[in-house]
């Protein structure tokens, strides 16, 4: 702990991201809080689960006091799904993965050429119907590479082939596109503040673009990557190439591009905007120690992931930070560079990765007990 913190009564702020495939951020916070109190029963502990704009962003907002809203939308394969968004005081948090995410696909099933973002547009429209004047659009975890064409269609755009009929779903169908008509876009879009919460800096197309970098993760074979990149290039030639090279245009299979080029969105780092919406700065004023973390503290953590954002905000206030994780590959020097004084890995307690994931909850409680003994006594 810092010298300043040592002179104050202890107050712990638990602000983790999810342990992917194991525990949600809310569950991580609950387990850590429980472990701390097993050692120090009277310890003031405040939980504020976080996210970086991807999976879990809506859940984090709801845990912070936003209202949960549900609506039926179109899933990535065209089937109806029930998706949630969060709403409070005119601000909506919309998570693209709720409608168009990889987690909406059956196990082992991918649809790189036909997966659609139509449901994400429907989710945005639902937020507008609920009266949102500010919309945070988190774009991680998508199953799609359609350039956001489906999202635009759901909001009233007309994407037509040479016969004047709407093109089919997915990025592959963009090759048949001849006309982009935005005259029917929901006029409320121009009246809201739309923030694209993303840490992706990729352009829309090219070797660092949406198809080349992220297409394989969504099941695209090499020839399909080439097809999708060409389709996105064609789409941009019709919608307007001005934002195709903007950092973040390649987010979520090109949804970033559509949001920038057609919806007037602006890009902000995902963790930055999420922490702002959750009221993290206010919570920090009460904290003497912050506990953050995610499933794997690794090289990706250094590039704007949630624990990095949490640690940076705490370090700016002179507040000590420790981290919990399933797997740790960062050196002590790299952790220190983030502002994390020490990291506790579950694999230190259980070396078998499968058992570690299965027993992540109880292991986290044991780790939190160690933190209480090491940092709070």
Automatic annotation (TrEMBL):
Keyword entries, A-Z: Kinase, Transferase
Entries under InterPro entries matching the protein: Glyc_kinase_flavodox-like_fold (IPR018193), Glycerate_kinase (IPR004381), Glycerate_kinase_RE-like (IPR018197), Glycerate_kinase_sf (IPR036129)
GO molecular function: kinase activity
One Pfam family of this chain: Gly_kinase
Gene3D superfamilies: Glycerate kinase, domain 1 (3.40.50.10350), Glycerate kinase, domain 2 (3.90.1510.10)
Alphabetized NCBIfam families for the sequence: glycerate kinase
Family: Belongs to the glycerate kinase type-1 family.
Name used for this protein in its record: Glycerate kinase
Organism: Streptomyces albipurpureus
